[in-house]
Write a structure and sequence with these properties.
Elements lengths: L8 H34 L5 H33 L1 H19 L5 H15 L2 H12 L5 H12 L2 H11 L1 H11 L5 H20 L6 H7 L15 H12 L2 H11 L2 H5 L12 H26 L3 H20 L6 H14 L3 H10 L6 H14 L1 H38 L15
């Protein structure tokens, strides 16, 4: 990188803080899929079918909260500033996770996950918007790549703490005399990490583009106006659709790994644990994000890289569903890792969303688009369940996957490549 293209120290600090924020975001987002079985057993739910159905319901409550939160925080980010959103969202999901450790029934569990979802929805969009606006158009791809690549590793910590957090349990017991279950400790750790992150946020500055915009008489954060023109609405919807395969893979193939591994479906030999599947998938996703970001800079194209990854995603879905039968648990975890790699274009996905729209609506777009994709888990898992009775588990997963990947490919093909685009402009709505 030449001297003229070097990233200023203040910008590097912002990237590091945004990456740590996304790390905590992913930790909290994924944690439920790691501890769901243990926590539901503790609440008196023992029937496997009930655990499965309640787990999907609680996860959907969380993702529903993210749908609402994405809209709320996105509009606030354009109206009040990116930093205010970062502080507010982190405080909300940190508090929700601490409370989550002490739920006593399913309704309260669902409510807390919904509130946590609202909080989680603000972190990524605000961070990506800030970094995209303060970095040069040639280098901003590196910024989002670092944020998402490092952030994805939060799932690994969630798997480790959620599955093997006994040392932390012991420390809490020795210090306070309070005995907590492993799943309770995992939620409390998430809350503490978020509160610690707030202290780091104190040294970050607002985007110059937003400060300049704030002085102009321009409408900001007008979500409904995204649909006032056909071209704008088409662009916005396409931004959402290209992210569907990521959460198809996470919400079905990875979140339900134990169910797929069972004797009645794939018949995997050896024990498969959801937490381990999540960990390997997110290790793959982190590697995939790093590679996709580098490829995008090398090829000077977002579009080519995403289309390549969608092809890989289709291939790995087929391998997961049809070429894993009777294999070992180790083999299955390897496939989960590779599925993660194939869906590791999340960094490009959020960059594309940020680059498609002007400064006056950018935070609204970058907050709503990834969270609407996360919220799409609700219809994705719902469709999977609906079709499972007639097509079987594998057939249903294949049908839903084909739709998600097909829509994403069409949408990516329809969007203009935004690599190197100047972002300092006002969107006409």
């Amino acid at each position: 990188m030449s001297k003229s293209n070097r990233i200023p120290r203040q910008t590097l600090v912002l990237i590091v803080v945004a990456a740590l924020g996304y790390f905590v975001d992913i930790y909290d987002l994924i944690l439920f899929n790691v501890v769901k079985k243990e926590s539901l057993l503790a609440l008196g739910i023992s029937d496997p079918a009930q655990i499965k159905n309640i787990s999907i319901s609680l996860f959907n409550w969380q993702m529903g909260g993210m749908l609402l939160g994405g809209l709320l925080w996105g509009i606030l980010g354009d109206k009040k500033g990116r930093l205010k959103v970062l502080f507010g969202s982190i405080l909300l999901y940190s508090a929700a996770n601490v409370f989550n450790a002490f739920v006593t029934d399913i309704p309260s569990y669902a409510m807390v996950r919904f509130i946590a979802g609202i909080g989680l929805a603000g972190e990524l969009g605000a961070g990506i918007t800030l970094v995209s606006e303060v970095m040069s158009k040639e280098n901003r791809g590196y910024g989002t790549m670092i944020i998402v690549t490092f952030g994805a590793l939060g799932a690994v910590l969630a798997a480790l703490v959620g599955g093997e957090g006994h040392a932390i349990q012991d420390v809490i017991h020795r210090v306070s005399g309070i005995t907590l279950a492993n799943w309770q400790v995992a939620y409390i750790v998430g809350g503490i990490l978020g509160l610690m992150l707030l202290l780091l946020r104190l040294g970050t500055l607002e985007s110059g583009m937003f400060r300049n915009l704030h002085q102009q008489e321009v409408g900001r954060g007008q979500f409904l106006k995204l649909f006032s023109k056909k071209e704008t609405a088409f662009r916005y919807i396409n931004c959402i659709l290209i992210g569907l395969p990521v959460w198809y893979a996470i919400g079905i193939l990875i979140a339900l790994a134990e169910d797929f591994a069972g004797t009645s479906v794939l018949g995997i030999t050896g024990k498969v644990v959801n937490g381990q599947a999540v960990m390997y998938a997110y290790l793959g996703l982190s590697a995939g994000d790093l590679l996709s970001g580098l490829l995008s800079q090398f090829w000077r194209s977002r579009k080519k890289v995403v289309l390549l990854y969608l092809g890989l995603c289709a291939t790995l879905t087929l391998v997961y569903l049809f070429f894993s039968k009777g294999k070992s648990a180790e083999y299955f975890y390897l496939i989960c890792f590779l599925v993660g790699v194939a869906t590791g274009y999340w960094a490009l996905f959020v960059s594309i969303a940020a680059e498609q729209f002007g400064t006056n609506i950018r935070s609204t777009v970058t907050s709503t688009v990834p969270n609407f994709v996360r919220g799409a888990v609700i219809p994705i898992t719902g469709s999977f369940r609906l079709l499972e009775g007639s097509l079987g588990t594998v057939g249903s997963a294949l049908a839903v996957g084909c739709v998600c990947i097909g829509l994403a490919a069409f949408s990516m093909y329809s969007l203009k490549d935004t690599f190197g685009k100047d972002l300092d402009y006002i969107e006409t709505l």
